[in-house]
Write a structure and sequence with these properties.
Elements: E1 9-14, E2 19-23, E3 30-31, E4 40-48, E5 51-58, E6 63-68, E7 74-79, H1 81-84, E8 90-98, E9 101-108, E10 113-118, E11 128-129, H2 131-134, E12 140-148, E13 151-158, E14 162-168, E15 174-182, E16 187-192, E17 195-201, E18 206-212, E19 216-219, E20 230-238, E21 241-248, E22 252-258, E23 264-271, E24 274-279
Antiparallel strand pairs: 1-2, 1-24, 2-3, 4-5, 5-6, 6-7, 8-9, 9-10, 10-11, 12-13, 13-14, 14-15, 16-17, 17-18, 18-19, 20-21, 21-22, 22-23
Length: 280
């Protein structure tokens, strides 16, 4: 969310490779006016000090980044690799904010996992090879990253059908990847009310897992009303609630909210002709 708003903000890649943004109303998309960046395949979003940051993957495996100021003005796309180094052919990206900085988690086409930070002054740190810091869970097929308090949580699925979880503590040290559960579908993660919430798509539903610092992992109520043929997941903590966005094979978006009381409500599927989407 932006500023003091309690409405989610969405960024979506269209089937044609365009990039759209919706502020306040999740169904009212406008083209992102941040310059030419070529056709895109994936996107992510995070709010840092009131500004909306989005990163997107190009069809050639590149990585670009743009900022929407709180005033609504977009700053033009920049090439992340030219500032943070080249981790390889980028296949996917996820984002979160920690201590006033943007963190980008990148999955490469070879199953690698890399992390970079954009400082408040606009400079970037070189990509860190995450497996060298957290251990190697295997060939990564999907990823998610979020913040709980001042701790950075990284989720990764592998081609062996497992979900793994690592933590970067506020003091900069890492807890290595732990094997959490069997998982082959898409994943998303969000920090809500001091807990880590993970959404994991299976064939016919979206599982909901919660990690609390004092009790470890718990199985929460699944999002059983999820639409069929889900192709992508996104999640965010907004105003103390868990917001989940589901992209379908027909290009539709379904938005569900888990309130502070633990009950789910849904807005229903909208036809938007999108391929991937992010929510913050």
């Amino acid at each position: 969310m932006l500023g003091t708003d309690t409405a989610p903000h969405l960024v979506a890649v269209t089937r044609g490779g365009g990039l759209l943004h919706a502020a306040g109303s999740w169904a009212d998309f406008d083209p992102v006016k941040a310059g030419d960046r070529g056709p895109l395949t994936a996107t992510c979003a995070a709010v840092v000090d009131g500004d909306l940051h989005t990163a997107a993957v190009t069809r050639s495996g590149g990585l670009v980044h743009a900022v929407r100021r709180a005033s609504g003005v977009w700053v033009r796309f920049g090439d992340v690799k030219s500032h943070a180094g080249n981790p390889g052919h980028v296949a996917d990206v996820a984002a979160t904010a920690v201590d006033g900085t943007l963190r980008l988690l990148v999955r490469t086409a070879t199953g690698g996992l890399f992390l970079t930070r954009r400082r408040a002054d606009g400079s970037w740190t070189p990509f860190d090879y995450l497996k060298g810091l957290t251990g190697d869970p295997g060939f990564v097929t999907d990823l998610a990253v979020t913040t709980v308090g001042r701790d950075l949580h990284v989720l990764a699925t592998t081609n062996r059908g497992r979900l793994h979880h690592a933590i970067r503590w506020a003091d900069g040290t890492w807890r290595a990847f732990h094997d959490v559960a069997a998982q082959r579908g898409r994943i998303a993660a969000a920090g809500v009310a001091g807990a880590l919430h993970v959404l994991a798509h299976t064939v016919d539903r979206v599982r909901h897992l919660v990690h609390r610092a004092d009790r470890g992992w718990e199985r929460a109520d699944d999002l059983a009303s999820a639409p069929r043929h889900v192709t992508d997941l996104a999640a965010a903590g907004v105003g103390g609630e868990l917001h989940v966005l589901l992209t379908t094979a027909t290009g539709g978006l379904d938005h569900a909210v888990r309130g502070s009381a633990g009950t789910w409500s849904g807005a229903g599927e909208r036809s938007c002709s999108v391929a991937r989407a992010a929510i913050t």
